[in-house]
Amino acid sequence: MISLTINGLSVSVEKGWTILEAAQFLGFPIPTLCHHEGLSPYGACRLCVVEIGEGPGARLVSSCTYPVEEGMKVRTASERVVRARRMIIELLLASCPQSKVIQDLASAHGVRTQRFRQEHEDCILCGLCVRMCSEQMMAGAIGFRGRGTGRSIGTPFDVQSEVCRFCGGCMHVCPACQLRCTYNQPEKAVCNSCANLAPPCIEKEKYGDMMCYMNPCVACEIK
User: Fold this and answer.
1) Backbone angles phi, psi at 124, to 5 degrees
2) pLDDT 10s digit of each residue in the chain, 223 long?
3) What is the torsional sign of CA 53, 210, 217, 101?
4) Residues of each domain in the chain carrying CATH 3.10.20.740
5) Topology of domain 128-173, CATH
6) For the whole model, what pTM was predicted?
7) Which of 58, 85, 98, 156 has the largest CB neighbor count within 10 A?
8) DSSP track, the chain
9) Which CATH architecture has domain 2-117+183-209?
10) In angstroms, what is the C-alpha Rg of the chain?
11) How far apart, in whole angstroms, are the C-alpha atoms of residue 101 and residue 117?
């Protein structure tokens, strides 16, 4: 067993677990997008970022790929983590504003504006479809192509794959291919139609190095 501290709570978890697995097992909510049960961790979206360490040496890491370590100190909802997640959500909205999955994440994390250039490229390169096709469908019909700004997902040379069975597994897990929202103009990049009308206390109070991570928030109801 590995002993560590998560949000000030001393815990013990199985050796080999990732921080995300430990947090989920113990009930600490961490948002994810490119992570999917049954698929290998990839760490593409960085939405599951957490803060480890203390003082000037503390750093942000993706919890879905970072293994737990003896004596590790983890914060899943520090002010630094919350700022980073909101920034990531804004970037995701710039690439795929019509994704209901991303719009719901924006509403849940209090993102009300999107400050970056609207791209409407839809694909966010999370790799879910590639891993689903390879690891669950055992086909490997699609994959990543190119590098940097030219990186994309598709079949080699854009030729229809002979091993594709048209199972739809790639579309089933794709955040861009699932339910769609209609807002697609830069000034309306954030829909917030599903926003909680009673926002949590995350903006009202800070508890030292931690911000409220209750999900759903109940602290404001306690008198």
Assistant:
1) -105, 10
2) 999 999 999 999 999 999 999 999 999 999 999 999 899 999 999 999 999 998 889 999 999 999 999 999 999 999 999 999 999 999 999 888 888 899 999 988 989 888 888 877 788 999 999 999 999 999 999 999 888 888 889 988 888 888 998 898 999 999 988 777 765 565 667 877 665 544 445 454 445 566 555 565 554 544 3
3) negative
4) 2-117+183-209
5) Alpha-Beta Plaits (3.30.70)
6) 0.81
7) 85
8) -EEEEETTEEEEE-TT-BHHHHHHHHT-----SS--TTS-----S-TTEEEESSGGG-EEEETTTPBP-TT-EEESS-HHHHHHHHHHHHHHHHH-TTBHHHHHHHHHTT-----SPP---------HHHHIIIIISS----EEESSGGG-EEESGGGPPPSS-----HHHHH-TTTSSB-S--SGGG----TT--SS--GGGT--BTTB----SS--GGG--
9) Roll (3.10)
10) 19
11) 20
